[in-house]
UniProtKB/TrEMBL annotation:
Coiled-coil regions listed: none
Annotated gene: orc1
Domain BAH residues, every copy: 63-194
Keyword Nucleus assigned: yes
Biased segments, Low complexity type: 261-270
SMART domains from the UniProt entry: AAA, BAH
Region named Disordered: 220-306
GO cellular component, one term: nuclear origin of replication recognition complex
GO biological process: DNA replication initiation; mitotic DNA replication checkpoint signaling
Protein known as: Origin recognition complex subunit 1
SUPFAM superfamilies: P-loop containing nucleoside triphosphate hydrolases
Source organism (scientific name): Schizosaccharomyces osmophilus
Record CDD domains: AAA
Amino acid sequence: MGRRKSLRSQILIRHLPQEEADSNDESDSSDIDEEQTYGIWTEKPFQTEAGRSYYRKLQRDGIIYRLGDDITVNDGDSSFYVGVITELYDKAITKHSGEKYYEAIWYSRAVAKRMEIKPEYLLPDRHVNEVYLSCGRDENPTSSIIEHCNIYSKEEFFKRFPQGIPPKKKDDFARNFFVDRGVHLKFNKYTEPLNWSEYSHNLDKIEDLLVEMEETLRLPKKKTSSRGRGRGRPKKRSVSEDVEGDNDDYNLMKEEEIPSSDDASSVVSSSDEEYEVPRTPKRRIKRSRTTPSSAMSTPRRTGYKQPLQITPLPLRMLSMKEFQNSPHRKARAMLHVSAIPNTLQCRDNEFTTIFTNLESAIEEETGGCLYISGTPGTGKTATVHEVVWNLQEMAREGQLAEFTFCEINGMKVTNANQAYSSLWESLTGERVTPLHAMELLDNRFNHPSPNRCSCVVLMDELDQLVTNNQKVLYNFFNWPSLPHSRLIVIAVANTMDLPERILSNRISSRLGLSRVPFEPYTHNQLETIIASRLEEVKDEELFSSDAIRFAARKVAAVSGDARRALDICRRSSELAEGKNGKVTPILIHQAITEMTASPLQRVLRDLSFMQKVFLCAIVNRMRRSGFAESYVYEVVEEVDRLVKSMTSTDAAEFGQLIQRRPEFHYILSSLGETGVLYVENKSSRNARVRLAIADDEIKLAFSGDTELKGIA
């Protein structure tokens, strides 16, 4: 701020009407004596700093632009934005192209074709020619400038245009506006009426006003439970409920909704120059003289599909009496994987890292990517949901700017391109085709907007969104790098090295170094998680400490999956309730035996040695590549690698067998017949295979097999 003010205080810009400014363009052009570069004439830079050369003015296509000029900027559509130039400069890295840049402070238009500020936050007496001074500023290339415009005070505007300017007069409507108030778009608060004639074209006073707006309009930040993981907070709503209703960033306004020139007299009162909100006149509907049967017609199609209306399924609500009469039932409800705990245990470091990244990106209005990896059941998605909930709570209290949250799960979309439609619907509430949504999103993120809020996108099950050309992931990871996108993408996958192994270099480079690994839970962490779930029934002493410790150690030795530990405790609670006792290590062992003695587990244990090795190879290949499907030749190569590391006496004979074509095809066919594998085109080495069961089931079945020691 200090460098900017000292830089701007070197010049004094007079307020000139547009007509006088245009008349002086020829005289000012003589002061510009630099070389011509792609249609742009500039003066010599008066200051160079940090690879940038700063200018007081430049000429483009015969028009001179100076510091402090009010301009209209192309929004990438048929409308425009309004701003005031605060800096003119070029960059060392773009000097060879001749591209110049400017920084502008935005005016927020009260009425626009597409308003990203929510209509309910606008003042009720807004006028079609009114703009609000906002605290937002952006860097843009000079090619986005449309033309000069005039920003008046309210009194001066209605003195020049007593009836206002209707939109039908396009030339005057797009050049003349007035400012009566300032607005802080992050917190949707307005200043008292301003005398804009004191600030017009005076950058120092405008900067002082912006500082005052930042101090007075925003709420003071106070330390709350948001960073403390929400301890003691009320019952938490789901993330989908938090973001419901926040998807109306765009408000489409048709041209007929703006008053015509004939109705302009109703906008301004002749006595005291007061004005009203333009209203859409009611149209008379011509009713055809037809019979009721012939009056039915096909409804006219609109440009966008309506949001899906989903009929909710009936919910079975359990009364509290049932829980009070059965403490075990209450314990099982809290141990269920879908239950949302009051606090998220054992992920404090990961929570802090994700929270800090998202909060800083939202506060600074920048984009970014964050890659989260870890095996299933390690709390990746739950931690992100907890962070987003806390940030939304801060936004509701006015301690953080508002933002939009969108969750895209790769397992819930039939086609990766549907991610475009999901994101666009979250931003605007409009349902469009994936191809159209991609074009709209690309246009949105490539053009500036003074009212745009940040958007956080959670892309869960990232490996399911990988396509052959990887265009979907490239776009989602490239958009955050654009200067105007304010898009924050959180990618979640099960493998740590998915970007390097699967994604191309151009995609993995955009992910950057912002990565958060989630290690499997240790037995101590699992004990803490189970104990925290049972906090409300601690007085009942339903679980002994030895039982919780035994369950945690058993699960930690196999996978470290918290969901499996909770399922084991729930089953042991059912067994204890039938015996009217409490859960002991014996019941925990019985529950584990039942879960591992399922028909599927018996089938896996009864497989031949060669079939087991093939399954281990498929699991290893799947976890290393990040893909659910693998080719047969890749599995054979993985089998060969595993055989070389084995110490079994059958390893040498098996290594010779797998090189024979009939043998490995017989193994795959037999596994497919048992329902363990999906095999496509069994007679080819390029056939694709995929597990038909969870990989944890295989690991659990083979964990005690001595023949597979070292590979399972």
